[in-house]
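If your schedule permits, I should be very grateful for your opinion on a structural question. I would ask you to consider whether the tokens describe a fold that such a sequence might reasonably adopt. Thank you for your consideration; the sequence and its tokens are set out here.
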Amino acid sequence: MTGEIRTINLILMVIGLAIAIMGLVQVFISRNIEKKTRRFFFLLFAILDLYVLCLLTRELTYSRQDNAFWPILSQIVFFGQAFFASVLTVIITAFLLYQSGETKWRRSPFFIISLGFWLVYIALLISNLFTKAIYSVDQYNNYSRGPLFPILVAPTLLIMALNLLAVFVKRKSLTKNQRYAFVVYAVFPMVAMIIQSRLLGIHLIALSSVIAAVFMLILIISDQTERYYIKEAENSRLKLDILLAQIQPHFLYNSLITIRHICGEDSAKAQEALDIFVEYLRHNMDSLTTDRLVDFLTELEHVKGYLALQKLRFGDELNVEYYLETTDFKIPTLTLQPLVENAVTYGIRKKNSGKGTVIIRTRFFGDIVELSVEDDGPGFSYDKNEAISLAEGNKSHVGLANVRERIESICGGELIIDSEPGKGTRAVIRLERSEK
């Protein structure tokens, strides 16, 4: 290898390593990358760093011939660069399938075939340690290609071609940015591999892989950022829907009628009722300006205000019990109150007697918090294949559907409805415990 080629390679490898490290840093600082996508890019850039580092090590030690250590080191870094370069192609196949929506991508024919080609590549690489038919490093630390070198290139080229085919087949399941990203990552290294096989000694594959990875990162981040803001807009819309579902005209009307009735009997109690009513409305309006998690006790105080107003209307006909094993957790705002309102309106008040008990309960199961609202009302037939199925119809209970969506989208929790005719209803929120 001439000194000029070595200088070119050193420049290419230093640039490639710097870009790969910056890509790794970008993965850490980007906030809008989905968790599994972040893991993929961390793995991708980590392997790219190792790949380029192997090439750089070889370039820096190429002329060292003073003892037997250098040929051994060269053998190691040659094997390492070939191994890491091949791993990248299979990772891209897996990530492509995941991005297209395949949850069981390991069973996909594309991944199985890609993995098969990779295993052939690894078998050839390992066999070369004994045969030296693909490449070799002599005792003077000189590298040379063997007669079977083109065979080693074939499996990785086939995997890249397979990835291009997968992009075409899955094109309707991929966004435009995703299609561009995977096509570029397949084409750039493939072209560089063909050129490098003709230009002995010039390391183009590594730099092209790093540039393609950065291009992919930019497109995927752009794609997921767009989705993030769309999701934020949807969450805002859901909050408005919840508020409208909660501040129902009949509730406002009945509350004001109750307060007016109290005014004629007990002015001090009427003042107390007005204070509770104003605080209840204020909490609902404040909830429009935040989509963060709030302390459970804050949400509970709001619910107690609602229940106090209902007690003013129904007196001893409405009984409320609290069994709170824990209050040290956070929940999305305006998620407990709709469950309590349904327990009162469609549970207790639907009984023939109009009397009953609402139970609010909290407890821990390891790292899982369970918050439940129970009533001893008439219950209803619940179809688990539907999101919400109530006897009075979904339209009257849009608040529950919104609670389910908010819990899933904001904190990854779940809402479970357990009810049978004649046995009451139990609504359960399960979510991971949030740090204070």
